[in-house]
Amino acid sequence: ELGLYELEATLIPVLSFEFISLESLFEKLSHPECYGGLVFTSPRALEAIKICLKENSNNDAWSKSLKQRWNTKPAYVVGKATASLVEEIGLTPQGEKSGNAEKLAEYICSREKPNSSAFLFPCGALKREVLPTVLREKGIPLESLTVYQTTQHTDLQESLSSYFSQQGIPASIVFFSPSGVKFCLQHIQKLSGDFINHIKFAAIGPTTAEAMEAAGIPVSCTAESPTPQDLAAGIQKALQLQNC
């Protein structure tokens, strides 16, 4: 998408993920009768399930009965990337146009009755409390299970240093998560020096934009929805404004 605007993108991995509690996750997935449905706000939660399903016995149980039983219940998702992974394990996603946890929480509340069975919510250790809080206030029970931890990618500092030494100061830097801001900012400030004011900083969505503002980064653009098309259009607009 950025190439369509004649912009060249360099992708620098910021995060590493370690999967945990996978036995507990599959144990809970083995009892659909205990839950009102599933909630996913991250592709990593689906990756955790896919790791569980690599074991033949688990995969057999999933294919033979668990998948069909979960399919009688909703699987709520926050965006398209998560939705496509839900489809890969054979479930039907709902709410993918939400785009963030706040909107997904509203969507779930509009469709579910209070005091229903709990929803199973496999999530990361750094999850925000927005979705659990909204559902709790509306009387919709949520059972969170931490299935991955987020750490800084081992090559992050080296990748950033290498980029700045070879390519110079970038026209724009895009952040895709609050943890991305947390792990990158110090390195970017050091490498940019006084030229940091020349960089247009972009956010994939409002949650990341909030984290950037809290860290003192001026946000030049926030994608209207978290898609490559909207992000590319937003960056192009921010860079055009700079040049006029």
TrEMBL record:
Keyword Hydrolase: no
GO cellular component: cytosol
Source organism, top-level taxon: Eukaryota
GO biological process, one term: protoporphyrinogen IX biosynthetic process
InterPro entries cross-referenced by the UniProt entry: 4pyrrol_syn_uPrphyn_synt_sf, 4pyrrol_synth_uPrphyn_synth, UROS/Hem4
Keywords tagged on the record: Heme biosynthesis, Lyase, Porphyrin biosynthesis
Residues annotated as domain Tetrapyrrole biosynthesis uroporphyrinogen III synthase: 7-232
Pfam families in UniProt: HEM4
Metabolic or biological pathway: Porphyrin-containing compound metabolism; protoporphyrin-IX biosynthesis; coproporphyrinogen-III from 5-aminolevulinate: step 3/4
Catalytic activity, EC: 4.2.1.75
Catalytic reaction annotation: hydroxymethylbilane = uroporphyrinogen III + H2O
UniProt-recorded Gene Ontology molecular function terms: uroporphyrinogen-III synthase activity
Keyword Lyase: yes
Family: Belongs to the uroporphyrinogen-III synthase family.
Function: Catalyzes cyclization of the linear tetrapyrrole, hydroxymethylbilane, to the macrocyclic uroporphyrinogen III, the branch point for the various sub-pathways leading to the wide diversity of porphyrins. Porphyrins act as cofactors for a multitude of enzymes that perform a variety of processes within the cell such as methionine synthesis (vitamin B12) or oxygen transport (heme).
Protein name per UniProt: Uroporphyrinogen-III synthase
